[in-house]
Amino acid sequence: MKGPFAAVLLSLSLLGGCVTVPQGTDFPAPGKAASPAQQSVALAPVEVTDKTFVKWNAGQTQSSGMTLSLANYLRASNRFSNVRMPGQTLAADDQVLSFSFDTYNVHRRPYGGYFPFALITLTGYIWFGGTSHIDESNVSGRLQVSDAQGKLLHSYQTRQYGERSISLYSMGPVNGSPERQSAVADLLDQYQSDLGKQTQ
């Protein structure tokens, strides 16, 4: 009985409840475009209305750190001829990029097969790196593009979702970096596709 009893205790000790946390505010280094578009852009403060993010961000929907990180991402991507920060004087031909995200979180939940597999294998499932939790990363957002006078020119939407298996050996912080980067890249790709059509 010691084996099955130990399996139950160990699996219960590792199997925590569900937790939802906001996505990070950093954006990984992007792939660099071969040549920038001739369009100069200005970045508006990024808005995040996801309730988990707002709660962790002291009730604020804007994050200066996230806006700065996104500006650095845009510059490193080499997509545009110039990237201006919020508050900088606009040039007459600038287009203003307004990013907003209504879903921006990572949800960690227990894996349903964890307990029975741990019991059947007398905890072997745990020690050999079997899945204990699933991380679900969700990002959905919008990019609105306006001219320097405030007239709306374009509006784009994206939704990115990813799942990752977590085991005893990968119980680190939740990570939604791939979905964050995919969401921004998808919005920018849509925008640049329209820019390309205008220059043809």
UniProtKB/TrEMBL annotation:
It comes from the Bacteria. This is Lipoprotein. It comes from Pseudomonas solani. The lineage of its organism: Bacteria, Pseudomonadati, Pseudomonadota, Gammaproteobacteria, Pseudomonadales.
